[in-house]
Amino acid sequence: MPHKRLSGWGRTAWTVADVVSAREPDAIAHALTEVGPRGAIARGLGRSYGAAAQNAGGTVIEIASETDYEGADITFSPETGIIDVASSVSLDAILRFSVPRGWFVPVTPGTRFVTVGGAIASDVHGKNHHVDGSFGQHVRSMTVLLSNGEVVELSPHQNPEWFWATVGGMGLTGIVLRAQVALLPIETSQVLVETERLGNFDAVCAAMSADGDDDRYRYSVCWVDLLATGASMGRGVLTRGNHAQLSEVSSDEPLKYDPRLRVSAPGWVPNGLLNKLSIRAFNEVWYRKAPSQRHVGCESIPAFFHPLDGVTNWNRLYGNQGFIQYQFIVPLDRTDVLRRVIETFSEAGVGSFLAVLKRMGPQNLAPMSFPTEGWTLTLDMAAGLKGLPELLARVDAMVLDAGGRHYLAKDSHVAPSAVRRGYPRLDEWLSVREAMDPAGMWRSDLSRRLGLVQGA
Amino acid sequence: MKNGVGVHQNIVLFGGTSDIGVAILREILQPGVARVVLVSRDVDRAQSATEEMSESYPEVDFFHIRWDASDASSMQHVVSEVVQAVSDIDVAIIAQGLLNEGRDYFADPSGLVEMANVNFTGTMSLMYALGGHMRTQGYGKMVLLSSVAGERVRRANPAYGATKAGIDGFALALDHELAETGVSVLIVRPGFVDTKMTAGMKKAPLSTDAESVARATVRAISGKTKVIWVPGALRWLFLVLKNLPLPIWRRLPL
Asked: Which residues are the signal sequence here (chain B) (predicted)?
């Protein structure tokens, strides 16, 4: 088996593993028979930011590739609106198939280059969480390969305990082989988007709060300028939208879907290109570019949902030091903590050009699913910033003290105690995990750092 | 496991009473570090060196293991004891060493073998044992406290210089041998460091202290650098010294 150096999308904490490429269930099951004492983990398109899909000294089973969309293993029933797909199929492949037929994925994160398997394991959410919940809530059933080679069918009705342990289970319960997912009918491939500039943090929170009109929009998210200080601290650009109805667009091909031509980030970027000054300049332009009055317009699916997918390898923009994503959630009534976190990062001079705030809807049944009712803030920062471990430890404590938690699909630094405190149902999940994988075969560098699976 | 912001959970110091080694520990401790192992001959002294650290970092577990740094044949066993305590080793700081300054080996050569065993044979065996374990982990960093003394061996202490020249050359090539395994070696070449090892000796120019060595080392640990010099100017000084013709070199008051 070839040794390969792997990292997450943030390009930090590289480790070496035996990497096996396997697409078909038989090949995946065969790969399991050769797994050594350091276990195995499945890897899709490697979009989790930290160490969730790598396994130092062990086996990594690569089940997907970005170019797999041609001839993707998708069966669709227009009567029920449910697709049956291999777990290696990406949301990109599904969208190419489904949008021209008038259907949309029920949930999409900020990139369409995630596999269905990864979307389930991370229980991904999108701009519609406050209305539609997370990905796992739209999975009708799935086929899962266990570490002992057994294949089981799981659904919210058939062995629900195992089903919900696998949703958000970070690949540590088994390898999802297939899934049945309910799609969302759409009349057009356009999104009717309202854009609004909000001058400070209070205005942002007020506009997105549950008693406002946020629930009238299926999609809602706010970009926040973390470097703004004083009266404009926490200013942002709120974008909210709904799928446009046929009557709202004038086009001969209302369901035309064309993932735009992609440009590529340069192969080598110096550390520090994205620094406080360049990000401040970017933020100013981004804020000013947004209309000062509420503005309504039509946007394509790629432009509205996946703007960063337009730049392949954008993760290289931070140079070889890599970057981290910090995403946490705090309860709805703790906007004070949000404010303090933003102030703390801003005072420390941490620039972030992808800071995004969203109000999340109620939590689902999965014990390790990240979203709960509350505010989630996501930001990115260079991994090599001086004093970052101490700064993050301070912010982690604020989040956890407020009853919040961190998103494991993005995490690359939290301590084991952060999961224990943030996920009150951890022990329940650990015991289901153990029942599904008594041998403790599923391991990742993430599980190793957080002590989620016994052994090395 | 190491994390994405350069914090290492499990750290081992070989030569647990070394001033530079303890200074590196003090510098590398930060939120996220979980377990620290000190491997030393004198466990009581190593314990008192860590008291202050464990007070500032109550969440860190400290372990102590006794060894004989001159017993090359025990290294495999020592490493397995460490592994039993912490499982994966993220960073191993290799700081044991004997200087034996001012000994007359013509009159009494008995100290030579022990020094060669501690500085060279034992360290080499230790690094193979560590490298083997880290290779199965798929990651890991060994930090070797070398010395400028190995760059060009001086008449002031030929035996010490020769052990340092040997282990430095070995470590550089071991890092090469381990390429693509996720394991790497950082070689630290300090000049004259003001510590108990050099107490009473005349300070050389560009001398430094344990804290400066520690800062430079910890800065380099998460990166790809293979060799650092402390202070950095020594790199250029030794580039010159190393290439001086022998007749000139021999006339220098070194």
From this structure: none
Residue B63 inside a domain? The answer is: yes
Closest CB to A57 among B2, B9, B137: B137
Residues of chain A found within 8 Å of residue B135, distances taken between Cβ atoms: 57
> What CATH number is given to the structural domain containing A133?
3.30.465.10
The residue segments making up the domain with residue B103 are 10-251
- CATH classification of the domain holding A409: 3.40.462
Q: Are residues A150 and A202 in the same domain?
A: no
The answer as to whether A41 is a domain residue is no
The string of pLDDT tens digits covering residues B71-95 is 999 999 999 999 999 999 999 999 9
What is the pLDDT averaged over residues B102-131? 95
End position of a domain, from candidates A142, A167, A186: A186
- Tell me: the pLDDT tens digits for B178-224? 999 999 999 999 998 988 888 888 777 788 999 999 999 999 998 88
Pick from B7, B87, B139: CB nearest A15: B139
pLDDT at residue B54 above 60? yes
Residue A140 lies in domain: 66-186
Q: Is B136 on the interface with A (CB under 8 A)?
A: yes
Mean pLDDT of chain A: 92
Strand partners, B229: B189
Residue B5 inside a domain? The answer is no
Residue A435 lies in a domain: no
Among A413, A417, A445, beta carbon nearest to B7: A413
Flag whether A317 is in a domain. yes
Catalytic-role residue among B57, B128, B139, B160 = B160
Q: Rounded to two decimals, what is the model's pTM?
A: 0.94
| B180·A56 Cβ contact <8 A | no
Give the count of domains, chain A: 2
| SS3 labels along chain A | CCEEEECCCCCCCCEEEEEEECCCHHHHHHHHCCCCCCCEEEECCCCCCCCCCCCCCCEEEECCCHHHHCCCCEEEECCCCEEEEECCCEHHHHHHHHHHHCEECCCCCCCCCCEHHHHHHCCCCCCCHHHHCCHHHHEEEEEEECCCCCEEEECCCCCHHHHHHHCCCCCCCCEEEEEEEECEECCCCEEEEEEEEECCHHHHHHHHCCCCCHHHCCEEEEEECCCCCHHHCCCEEEEEEEECCHHHCCCCCCCCCCCCCCEECCCCCCCCCCCHHHHHHHHHHHHHHCCCCCEEEEEEHHHHHCHHHHEECHHHHHHHHCEEEEEEEECCCCHHHHHHHHHHHHHCCCCCCCCEEEEECCCCCCCCCCCCCEEEEEEEEECCCCCHHHHHHHHHHHHHHCCCEECCCCCCCCCHHHHHHHCCCHHHHHHHHHHHCCCCCECCHHHHHHCCCCCC
Q: Is residue A8 part of a domain?
A: no
Residue B214 counted as domain residue: yes
A418-426: long-range contacts at Cβ-Cβ below 8 A with a sequence spacing of 24 or more? Answer: A419/A450, A419/A452, A423/A367, A423/A368, A425/A367, A425/A368, A426/A367, A426/A368
Q: What is the ipTM of this complex?
A: 0.92
pLDDT at B6: 93
Report if residue B3 sits inside a domain.
Answer: no
A55/B138 touch (CB, cutoff 8 Å), yes or no: yes
Asked whether the beta carbons of A12 and A49 are under 8 A apart, the reply is no
Note the pLDDT tens digit of each residue in A171-201: 999 999 999 999 999 999 999 999 999 999 9
Nearest CA in chain A to B181: A16
